[in-house]
Amino acid sequence: MPQKEKSVSLADQAYETIKTNILNMTYPPGMTLTESRLARDLGMSRSPVRTAIRMLQTEGLIVTDYYKSMTVKEITEKDIREIYQLRELLEGAAFRLIFTSGKNEEYSFRIEEKVVRMCAAASDIYAWEVADTAMHMEIVSVLENSRVDRIYENNLSELIRMGQFSVRNGMDIGRTNENLKKMVEFMRAGDYENAYAILREDHFTTGMDCALQFK
After folding, report:
1. pTM here?
2. Which residues form the HTH gntR-type domain (predicted)?
3. Counting CB atoms within 10 angstroms of each CB, which of 48, 65, 185, 207 has the fewest?
């Protein structure tokens, strides 16, 4: 294998591993990182790790201060409130459209598929939150708006980390999964009010309140 291809491959591996460790909170918000620490954790030389760091800095997951000290991006109270406000605005409009466009039965099955994956991941907070985020993206897909899709994709890392804050501070995965099953049943029955009440209570109100307790 040419040296250049090997280098790119190692950098990609480093990027994926470091990013996963940030998203699953192995490297929590505010943690100080160094090239030597990351190279040691990954069992790699500093060169591919340095490339991966630059990629993650571009994404905003790793930040550097005036003294060149690297840390995992913090999540502030303002971040949490803004993200949950954004979710409620977009998903609220999307959820209503699912019903007004007569797609509630179709989307009940599409969302149910994501809920099944959430139930299967119930013992792993990170995996469950990834599955939960996929469920929310399924809801906004009804808008068929590539700009909205990009907004969610651009905030995906924050959504996953904030969701884990919620679970670690009181949001009950088992109860949430059961409530989502009820939401699917209400969707299939064409009951918008009760279906949306579950989404709003569990995923906007309770989710945000629990996330705000992370400090």
Report:
1. 0.86
2. 8-75
3. 65
